[in-house]
Design a protein that fits this description.
Two copies of one chain form a homodimer. By secondary structure, chain A is α/β, with parallel strands linked by helices. In chain A, about 35% of the residues lie in helices and about 15% in strands. Chain A is built from twelve helices and eleven strands. Chain A has a six-stranded parallel beta sheet with strand order 7-8-6-9-10-11, with helices on both faces. In chain A, strands 2-1-3-4-5 form a five-stranded parallel beta sheet, with helices on both faces. In chain A, β3 (about 65), α3 (about 80-90) and β4 (about 95) form a beta-alpha-beta unit. In chain A, α3 (about 80-90) runs parallel beside α4 (about 105-115). The longest helix of chain A is centred in the last third of the chain and has 15 residues, at about 295-310. The first copy, chain A, is globular, with a radius of gyration of 20 Å.
Chain lengths: ~325, ~325
């Protein structure tokens, strides 16, 4: 799958910034690929890109409109379909990370055919997977895990991959969600794989590699999230990480979308090791990545110091303070590049 | 989905009895629906039904040929397709629990159309699910879990449901795999649900019910199986059992299809409680169901006595010695019917 850029990012009329995390993630890592954002009345999300209309974006040279926002359950609201048809009629391809296939909606399929434009469903792929085998592969792997969904697992993995490359490590990013696929141009939206093949798909995504190569695998969900723990479990077993980073948002009390309380960082570390050692007995936690956006800078530093001391591990906010301390930890534990 | 009987059970040429567990399970519970078995050269499985040819079965009144055996990964070997086309041409419907859709194979789809016969893909369903919510529902639930795949989780759930009904409890069986669906005429093949919706599908399958009604949910895989633990985790969270039964095969050393050693019963109990309490804080183990087929009767009784004492729980082989001791335990813990 090759998605043409520049992108127009479609945010629809979502009610909070988290629902537009796909678009925001793309802007974080590929701002130079993004020409503008398209927002409908009532949209509460903002990527910081200039607001443009679809026709305006097309006339400025955009190649693909990316559906950069998502509703609960991944459904496509009827009134977004109008915008998608407009984009196809304006000569753009459309790429989506929603569960529903764009071509399954008659108006969209007909508009794509009428205009000879491509529909990319990033959550669907033609790859077939084997069931997971659980045998140890060569090379080294890092997985980001979380106390919840939407706590920075993708960002942390991308930052870690970039920092490791900058420091001379051989490393690559393995995308497991739609945004990661938009950013890296490859990968699997793991949550759309048939349940029997979750671990097998994760194994396919992080295959045998050179012994000194690091694959940095984007985590999904949480072992403690009642909607998505199955995905997290299969990804943990399949990616068989040597090292993992726990991602956390300290002001959240309930898990996203449900009434379940957030687990503690300690619970997540213990459960990840307990489950992860099934496929990698040497699994260990090498750091804690905290989304401190809701804290002022003094509070953030104080929180990170407290957490770092409590667990005897590097703790940082990768967005705010960088991730070099975790690369230092990798060097100390596994050797410099 | 309504599957017409009598069935002809197709075993293909599978190399062991476990690979024909779908057919064997159907015979265990619905022998009166089964007219015969169809086996190809080299088949090492046997349901005990009379061997018949497809044409012979059709002439005796069979309505549906059920693909009652499965290869690793659920693929449909090319030489089985010939038999399926023969069945359709002989006037039978065909029902399959394989991952591949029968209609996706041209020769099969054409034969079905040519003969006006139905193709049932039990692993696929048109139901759409929400993501799991994790909130407590009314009624009571039992889940069977395992130290491995293919250790009797389905059989134990069916036996428990039957014994509870016989003893005056209000109970129903919730099928989560293809055989269970063939036996009960309803349910979901959970391993074929898209990963994001595993827990949601399990919630759909075991909805709110009368406070004194028991839903007996067929377990899948094992939290310790590196291929399928994601499915087991989502099913555990979604079915939010009050009570669970651990199923075990004492002579097995490696998990089915992989090199991973079997976990202990203690590990499975502890991990099931640890994970299961996320959606049901009162979850408890109420018994251990052992497949003692590889032991002689004295050995079997001795093993069950040892296990029962070690865990302070009823231990039985439901096939060999019945499951009344577990119904007694349910009565003692939750009250008589």
């Amino acid at each position: 799958m090759e998605i043409a850029h520049p992108y127009l990012l479609f945010l629809g009329d979502v009610h909070d910034a988290l629902a537009a995390k796909t678009a925001i993630g793309i802007v974080d890592w590929r701002k130079d690929w993004c020409l503008g954002q398209v927002r409908l009345d009532g949209c509460a999300a903002d990527t910081g890109l200039p607001d443009v209309s679809i026709v305006e974006g097309a006339s400025k040279g955009a190649k693909t409109m990316v559906i950069g926002a998502v509703n609960a359950g991944g459904r496509l609201p009827d009134h977004w379909i109008t915008s998608i048809v407009e984009a196809l009629d304006a000569g753009l391809d459309v790429a989506s990370g929603l569960h529903v296939r764009l071509a399954s909606i008659d108006a969209i399929r007909e508009a794509a055919e009428r205009n000879g434009k491509a529909l990319h469903d990033v959550r669907h792929n033609s790859e077939t997977f084997a069931t997971g085998k659980g045998t140890k592969r060569t090379g080294k792997r890092i997985l980001t895990v979380g106390t919840d969904c939407s706590v920075g697992k993708k960002y942390t993995a991308l930052a870690m991959d970039k920092a490791m490359n900058d420091r001379g490590f051989s490393s690559s990013f393995c995308a497991t969600g739609q945004t990661g696929v938009f950013i890296s141009g490859r990968g699997i939206a793991l949550d759309a794989v048939v349940a029997d093949f979750i671990a097998g798909a994760a194994e396919w995504l992080s295959p045998d590699s050179e012994e000194n190569h690091w694959q940095v695998v984007e985590g999904q969900g949480s072992l403690f999230h009642p909607s998505f723990a199955g995905v997290s479990m299969g990804l943990l077993h399949g990616s068989q990480p040597d090292a993992f980073i726990v991602c956390h948002e300290p002001t959240r009390t309930k898990m996203r979308g449900v009434e379940t309380p957030l687990p503690t960082i300690r619970q997540v570390i213990d459960m990840t090791i307990q489950c992860g050692k099934l496929t990698n007995p040497d699994i260990q936690c090498i750091g804690i990545a905290v989304n401190t956006a809701a804290l002022d800078e003094d509070e953030a530093w104080a929180y990170l110091a407290k957490i770092g001391e409590e667990f005897g591990l590097p703790a940082t906010d990768p967005v705010r303070f960088g991730i070099d301390v975790m690369v230092d930890k990798i060097s100390a534990e596994y050797g410099a590049p």
